[in-house]
Amino acid sequence: MSEQVLLINRRPPVRVLTLNRPQARNALNSQLIHELERAVDEARFSEDLRVLIITGAGDKAFCAGADLKERLAMSDGEVRRFLSAIRRLFSKIEELPLPVLAAINGVSLGGGTELALACDLRVAAAHATMGLTETRLAIIPGAGGTQRLPRLVGIALAKELIYTGRQLTAPEALAKGLVNRLAEHNKLMDVCLELSGEISKAGPIALAQAKFAINRGKDAELHTGLAIEASAYEACIPTEDRREGLRAFKEKRQPHYKGR
Q: What residues does each domain of the chain span?
């Protein structure tokens, strides 16, 4: 019987994906990457889903990166295929048309930090640590770390962290803008679910379009970014949800959005 490496907890409008290899510090092996990609593809078309949370099993590790024991047995060609798969997975997470939260419940190194960077928001347990440690192994971050980290914390700090392979404590990560919030380790999921509840009150089409505008516009010059924003706003105008929002405001009640 194969190992159950990914746990899926459906609690609409939120879904929690748990990397379930605690004995290996939730390291990413080929099976886990395949199953996580399949779960992300399913989430993309789940009409009752508003927020996706990704976390790790246990309280010691979110994800220690790639499974180096598996990597040792790979040929050069197999390593290239593995990297292609993990890059594709992280890009799919980044491009999901709904908010994705990383609940960082412990150590997050290498590919684990790259996974967190592909998410929209990061909430870290107070005892968590994060770092892109690949240069210590004579490689570089290969699943988006050299591109996503500078965009989040700035190029100078990103270079320092990647060149040294230094790990940050959770309070340091918060101070440098790498994570959004901290939580006590036994309250981490409560904080993530509370944040997800806040997000879920918004219109799902609006969330998808806001994410699209931010992601596509962040590297464009202002004129292009504003055009992207205008196009994203235009997509919201003919929706039932927009009219429902206006009615709810007028009637002083909570809106009931349907994603239409």
A: 6-200, 204-251
